[in-house]
Amino acid sequence: MLQELHIRNYAIIEELVIRFDAGLNIITGETGAGKSILMGALSLILGERADSNVVLNKEKKCFVEGVFSVSQQEAVSRFLEDNDLDVTTELVIRREIASSGKSRAFVNDTPVTLTQLQELSVKLVDLHRQFDTLSLGETGFQLAVMDAMAGNESLLAQYRKSFRQWQEIQRELSSLMGRISSDKKEQDYFQFLYNELEDAAFRENELEDLEAELKLLSSAEGIKAALAGIYEQLQGQEPAIVQQLKILSHQLQPFGDQHPKIAELLERLHAAHVELDDIADEASHLSDKTGHDSARIEQVNERLAAGYKLLKKHGVKTTAELLQLKQELSGKLEAIEVLDEKAAELQARLGAAETAMTELADRLGNARKKQVSPLEKQVNSLLARVGMPNASIKVHLEKSAPSISGSDDIDFLFDANKSKQYAPLRKVASGGELSRLMLCIKSLVANRMDLPTLIFDEIDTGISGEASRQVGLIMKELAHARQVICITHQPQIAGRADLHLFVYKQSLGSVINTNIRILDKEERIQAIAQMLGGEKPTAAALENAREMVMN
């Protein structure tokens, strides 16, 4: 609900604070008094483009602020949460315009973009003007009307949950199929690389071990000769070094107990004799095992060549890195197989989700179809009441591809003159016709839809008498469920007001300003009498006005 509108330095308004009530708020005033200026100022906080020409005093900025009560509006709360704005029961929207035309917008003192302001405003205010493009012609609103008539709130919530689940599985499957398609192109290459490494069958550290073995094989003759020389020197020749050590030990043996140092020398000679004897035996043993093996050298070279080729191909340096690469390729190949299995699982889930969604969509569609005839009859009856006896609507409902609102395509068709030639509303209905049609439809669903504040700007143009009275009655009925603000020239409508605001011009020296005030009962009677009978109403007009206000 719009509680207050504060306007400063806009057009011919120096400063104005307007307070609104729940129910039916009527705004009247003479032509040119500034009623349309009020709507222009309100449009700024609804997200319309700013124009520097509206700034009254170029040395100050223009300021328009609206205070809204939003305690029970879920759509507004969701918007605030989605846009990281404070969720409060009172919402303050402010628009500031500099003399340069640059503007800024704020929601509860937090800066917002014009797009955000426009998205929020449609959840707060539904502004109907004579020549506006109204939401009545939009499929989303038309389906919402049918669902309100059918009481589909719970069913629609179930369907939307099911539709989003179906969409999510679709997106997941599409993404997965893209990955599979990409991976399949590489699968053959991965398999080739893996097979190549598998066939090579390298064991851990094999290439490093082969390099060491090749060095040994290449030096076999030299090693054998060196080992033979060692053995020959230590034990093979006469006198052999080992034998000489034994002789020296025997020569010193008799003196071992005569001097402690000689005993130590004897021990060392004995140890040297044992060690050199062991070295000679080991050298002989190694010499017997060492020899030039041309076949083995060729075999090792071939194995190393294969290994070096793979190292170079994959840009690695060790056997361990080749084995790691083989393991990674194996993992990739296994992952591709797992993706195929997951795709099959998602296909099954998608089919089940589509079946559940389709069932709910069919139930929605059937519930909507049942309301087509009742809606047509009730709206057409109301159209006759508001001065459009020859007009009628027809609801065209047919199956369509699934969307967030179901699997139905809808169009409200309109015939203004009993021609039986129905066409979409947006193509054939005039501004006044659309506004009155919107009033009729919203009066039917006001208690079942989360409607914002409804503002009607002179939708009564072209009607009078009984039609005006009926418009007033319908607005009064509509205002029981939602706040309604109406600018009117019709006394029959003004007489239904819960709050009557009067717009007027006042002169302050050479300056003319627009102002507004709330009328009490007697002032209302006078204002309505003037609407009936002119500037100086007759007694009959005053009595008629009193009857309108009192009733």
TrEMBL record:
Keywords: ATP-binding, Coiled coil, DNA damage, DNA repair, Nucleotide-binding. GO terms for biological process: DNA recombination; DNA repair; SOS response. GO terms for molecular function: ATP binding. This is DNA repair protein RecN. One of its GO terms (cellular component) is bacterial nucleoid. Gene3D superfamilies: P-loop containing nucleotide triphosphate hydrolases. It comes from Flavihumibacter solisilvae. It comes from the Bacteria. Belongs to the RecN family. Residues 2-506 form the RecF/RecN/SMC N-terminal domain. May be involved in recombinational repair of damaged DNA. Residues 193-220, 322-363 form a coiled coil. InterPro entries: DNA_recomb/repair_RecN (IPR004604), P-loop_NTPase (IPR027417), RecF/RecN/SMC_N (IPR003395). PANTHER family: DNA REPAIR PROTEIN RECN.
